[in-house]
Design a protein that fits this description.
- This protein has seven helices and no strands.
- By secondary structure, the protein is mostly helical.
- The protein has one domain.
- α1 packs across α2, α2 crosses α3 and α3 packs across α4.
- The longest helix is centred in the N-terminal third of the chain and has 17 residues.
- It is globular and about 35 Å long.
- Pfam families: DUF4259 (PF14078).
- This is DUF4259 domain-containing protein.
């Protein structure tokens, strides 16, 4: 996993998703959540899918006026540009929360969680704290 921190955008998969979001906007958000739901139903959420869903959830929090106060400034322009369309997606808050639950449910069904847990308690704790904070902003 190419990660340099526990923050939502502190990994390669989130960065890859952000490029897609720049091009496709709200459609990329909706697709990230649908992909995670379908993959989880099939038994396993791969790392790129999990990272994309977490990044998409952050885009939702931003669109709903609850951004991460530590988000990188370079990302905010893209998030702002697509915020109205993201906020208008049906049931988007609950879809974001559900996706976060699926990627943090258990190691056996989420490669993202599995890799954080393999990395040790400190890293896993930081990651889970970041997800909990994101979920709180989506409440």
């Amino acid at each position: 996993m190419g990660a340099w921190g526990a923050g939502v955008f502190d990994n390669d998969d989130a960065g890859d998703w952000l490029y897609e979001f720049e091009e496709r906007g709200a459609d990329a958000v909706s697709e990230a959540f649908t992909t995670v739901r379908d993959s989880h139903a099939a038994g396993y959420v791969e790392l790129p899918e999990g990272g994309a869903a977490v990044a998409a959830a952050e885009a939702v929090a931003f669109a709903l006026g609850r951004p991460d106060p530590e988000i990188m400034y370079s990302i905010t322009a893209t998030l702002k540009r697509h915020a109205p369309a993201v906020a208008a997606l049906p049931d988007i808050r609950s879809r974001a929360r559900d996706a976060l639950s699926l990627v943090t449910e258990e190691e056996a069904t989420s490669e993202l969680l599995e890799l954080w847990m393999e990395g040790g308690e400190d890293g896993a704790g930081d990651f889970l704290a970041a997800i909990a904070a994101l979920k709180a902003r989506l409440a």
